[in-house]
Amino acid sequence: MTLPTPMSRRSMLGLVGLSAGATALGASGCGGGGSGETPSKANAEIDIWCLQDEVQNKVQTGALTRYNATATGKAKITPFEGEAYGQKLQVAMGSPNQPDVFFNWGGASIRRFVENDLLVDLTPMLDSDPAFRDRFLKPVLDAGKIGDKFYGIPNRGMQPVVLYHNQAVFDRAGVKQLPQTWQETLTLVDKFKAIGVTPFAVAGGQTWTLLMWLEYFAERIGGPQVFGAIAAGDKEGWRHPAMQQALTAITDLVKRDGFASNFASVGYETGGAGTLFAQGKAAMHLMGTWEYTNQLNEQPAFAGKDLRWNTFPAWEGGAGDPKAVVGNPTNYFSITKRSDNVDGAKAFLKQMADDAYVTDWVTNGDVPAIAGIEAALGKSKNAAFGTFAYNMVREAPTFQLSWDQAIDSRYSEPMLTNLQKVFLGRLDPKGYADAMAAIK
Amino acid sequence: MNAGTATMVPVPPSAEQQSRRRSGRAGAGGDRAPRPGALYVLPALLFFLAFAIVPVVGVLVLSFTSWQGLGDPRYIGLENWQRLIDDPAVLSATGTTVLLTVLSWATQTPVAMALGVWAAGPQRNRAVLSAVFFLPLLLSGSAVAVAWKSILDPNFGLAGTLGPFIGYPDGNIIGNPDTALNVIVFVAAWQFVPFHALIYQAAARNVPQSLYDAAIVDGANRWHAFRHITLPQLRNTVVTSSTLMIVGSLTYFETVLLMTDGGPGDATVVLPFLMYATAFRQYELGFAATVAAVLVVLGTLLSLLIVRFSGFARMRSTQEGL
After folding, report:
1. B70/A22 touch (CB, cutoff 8 Å), yes or no
2. CA-to-CA distance for B119 and B306, rounded, in angstroms?
3. Is B156's Cβ below 8 Å from some Cβ in A?
4. Could you give the ipTM of this predicted complex?
5. Contact A264/B89, CB-based, under 8 Å?
6. What number of other Cβ atoms are within 10 A of residue B271's Cβ?
């Protein structure tokens, strides 16, 4: 990305740096960029940036304590709150005050950093320690690649998207068998409507919840390469017949009242969609595996009794493999080149495959992306769900990263906003493709 | 910065006393002692430069670049400005911003004026009630947005209960592309009417009682008194309040972010939100700076227009001849 004739960055930023309105930009100050790692100082402190989350931070702190017990350069965790995290990170990465290690989602969340040569290439580290590399499930480790190099080490559970259902509602509607295909699912939609239950809960106020629908429809109808081409830069890919068919499946489902008429007013964070589903006001909920943990914490009675799950139904005659999975493969830790202690940071990342760390996640109800943990999962308190999710990913031919993470960040907002318009009936599938192709 | 300024200004320690004495004499008629003149303006000027002019220039410069916030901004000439014209999202956001501004002004002004004039009365109950009305003024904008979002939840908030009575049987108000902007206008009014009412209250209290007394002698009723005395006397206040409202609406942001996140679809994407999303979600800081530059121009232009055509610039007192 460094261009032959850049404008004077120092004077430019000096100007911007004074700005109040552009404080965030200004904080980027001078520096950033640059190639070559800083030589490691063994006693330099390692600052690890994480997302603030009670459960996650507890497990991460466990790894930290074990690492600090022997390391000379101590590590510490700096947690940041949800939405602010990405922005804080972006600003920090443009400045000299970068974290040593940071939590990320792989894909688009680190691509800019890689293009600006800010991250340590972890390929040699993995190549030199095959035992460490092979601890991770391959599709998940691979999803952390940018180009043909590894920049992230998986650090927590896998988060495939799962179709949950409320068994109490299924019983009430007299549904004996789980739908295997989309056509079968549509007949259920009518059954649930007949007993006055919303077929699918969806937190339509948050656009990312809607995206899961398009991801699975496109995957089942056309296979992973349909979106793969778009992610690789083909803006016309939205006109692909499979993509158009997937969008039409959505408009049909909306017309069929598959969602509540007020779905766009329903939130996710406020516990909206999940609560409606748990209370039996909706029969099914398409959501990531974290929803299981949420239900366990917020609606323990429901989670223990009526919460069930299954893979997304197959599409009759679809080109996609019904075993394919979409969602967030996992989260990753990456190391910055500016870190004063890259060696220490690498040593810390080895903790991610450590038995104690993996056990902490399993105990927690998560499903780490680690090979050969079937036995441990089978003994955990959430054995049924954990084993299901683990096998689902292990048997999957592909694990497609959530599109909003995979696509160039320039397109992710319009992709989500326009999709919400499709759900609201304000844009038809062709209009969607036109709108996406028109983005400059 | 203060220290720097202090060393630069050649004013003896007793400057304050001197100037007090001087102004005293000036009032008595003429003062020929030399003053530091322009130097007095320096601290304020430096602040204005640092926090207003320099950032604006910085944004202008950025608007001619392509920059992801990492590495070096790349000069791309007028590309961002060309895109500004071509991009349908900008056009749509501009329309929404204008609509939000007009609706906000049209709803807030009458309500704030009515409340303010009413609260200006000397009665005890009015004092108590206006203290209650002014409460939203004390709440942070984010708290207001989060509270209203919960209230408008169709399943667990009041929207589900009260919605059917106002024509929304499923409580779908905030998630409806046709009504979401009205929600923003309403919450903005709820939040800011108290402030403007306060301005109107103070102004209404300044209207000389003698005018009303004279009007009563002439047989005026309450409406006449309001129409022909209060309203003309509030003229300058209307201009001040409207300017604040209009410029405030142009930059209205956090409520949109927290309540609707620009949605549903792009129904509530206003220019400041577009700027934010472009900068911090799409990481196109150059184009975001272009949008910011448009906001600066628009805000300045509107303030100037209001001042120019309202006669506010001439600063004519409403109390001449009293």
Report:
1. no
2. 27
3. yes
4. 0.80
5. no
6. 23
